[in-house]
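Why this split exists: single-chain examples teach little about how molecules sit against one another. For that reason, every record in the complexes split bundles all components of an assembly together and asks for one structure covering all of them. Below is a record exactly as it appears in the raw files.
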Amino acid sequence: MDKFTTHTGIGVPLKRSNVDTDQIIPAVYLKRVTRTGFEDGLFAAWRNDPDFVLNDPTYASGSVLVAGPDFGTGSSREHAVWALQNYGFKVVISSRFADIFRGNSGKAGLLAAQVDEKVVQRLWDWLEDHPGGEITVHLESRTVRAGAGEDAVEDSFDIDDYTRWRLLEGLDDIGITLSHDDEITAFEAGRPAWKPVTA
Amino acid sequence: MGKTLSEKVWDEHVVRSAPGEPDLLFIDLHLLHEVTSPQAFDGLRLANRPVRRPDLTLATEDHNVPTLDWDKPIADPVSRLQVETLRKNAADFGVRLHPLGDVEQGIVHVVGPQLGLTQPGMTIVCGDSHTSTHGAFGAIAFGIGTSEVEHVLATQTLTQARPKTMAVTVNGSLPDGVTAKDLVLTLITHTGTGGGQGYIVEYRGQAIEELSMEGRMTVCNMSIEWGAKAGLIAPDQTTFDYIEGKPEAPKGADWDAAVAHWKTLRTDDDAVFDKEIELDASTMTPFVTWGTNPGQGAPLGATIPSPDDFDEPNDKVATEKALQYMGLEAGTPLRDVKVDTVFVGSCTNGRIEDLRLAASILEGRTVAPDTRLLVVPGSVRVRLQAEAEGLDKIFIASGAEWRGAGCSMCLGMNPDQLAPGERSASTSNRNFEGRQGKGGRTHLVSVPVAAATAVRGTLSSPSDLTPIADLQEV
């Protein structure tokens, strides 16, 4: 996984709450056996609407999605994270993420930055005044910033310490766990014999 | 201070705990299906890692599989490739697989319990959010993403931050004709889709204790629909009776040792939950959704709400968008909503008890002329059991389509999909936009509501049906 320290990119306002993973990528797009190529399925149904934000050329190269509360609810499909990444998103900002989506983001290297609901509204307002404006997300200091003038938005975001550390260092989770192999082996030795096996 | 059930199960599985780190949890059972596993196996190959515990891993084919012509090659080449990829991965890495055509094939969350692999006090994961189903047995069970699937395959563990605990106590008894599905839909509308976020939930109280294992699975299945990390129910005699004699259940002295341990899996009297919710089952009624998330529901006897009924701006906007998508007018009685397709099945309501209930309502009645009823058993075993009891004949006689086992129209990855604008009453778990097919409109319902709706062609409960005795007199 690549290290994530800071990112600056065009902010894309997604003014919806409860954006479930079936909206991020419908099930019919989940049939690939690779981790790439899912950008076609990103928000597939909504992209049929000419007024949908991603159909606005201003946001064509957007990389910071600013969404309403309860983003990523529903299915556990990590394809939702991959679709956002394959499309070019590096960061999603929301006031509340579904647990599995947040976990998947941390594993795959997409930054899920949780902010106060008021900050989402201020970023939406700022983007309305500055369409195509850039948002900077700084992981070390856990801050999000848009603009420089009087109407600039600057605030902090939440991310758990462990995920932040892994993203900053670009660490492979499995490698870390396998360094504790002796502890896993010791645990296995103490499991009750009546626990079920499949083989 | 005592411990809650989920804290007991969690603590029994901590391999490593260190300050500033999430716990490293041992996983007792890892279930796999074709959609969320291929990239995980690829990751193992790239890093030259084996599956650490193939003996704690089980794979089945469910999401993509056709429910017609299941003895022929899968017609859709992309679906076929995904299923064939699972077969190759299972063979290469030594994982037990129940493929299409096998008598143990079916929806992963139906297969685990019916094999007896799902047992109290276990940790169970799968790359599927409805893994919470297995919590019905007093297990900590939750859905994971593909990176975590790879992590479990390689290490048989997961790094997990300890969730907060919540108790949902459902007092009283459910009235006749009101089911576990109505209970959980009522709960989700009460809490909203984010109400459980960050919590492992224990369902308790008289109404929960009175549920069958099938009903408990229905409740735990939908834990994820209100955002909970997992949902579980303390094991009791109902649980032990269900497991005993299942193919992979402990036998002899092992059974006695297992039950002795399982009986300790109860929340201590002096344990404290981080949050508690209480509901009264005796006031519950058949409950259906009108919107595009499982928290947008109402009693069947109500009318469709208006955006003005909500105080929060986000709820107003969400209601407006939902009514527009669903093609519904505020103020319309839910019983007047005409339905094109009824789907009985899924990991929520595709078990034998569900099919028996549907058949008991459909026996002697016929499906409305413009309505299609699809009955899809959750597994091959459920299909065979239903056929042994003659339920298939009742379904076919009523005009329903009797299908093979799989996830089917719950998410429409196979050919069982809604057409744009088509409206369904579905016993599944999600009414998201396009979930059952692009442009499809879904109302989540219980099994009795599904069966009655199929007969009348509009959202209905069995109490709306003409009694069979009166039908025979005509």
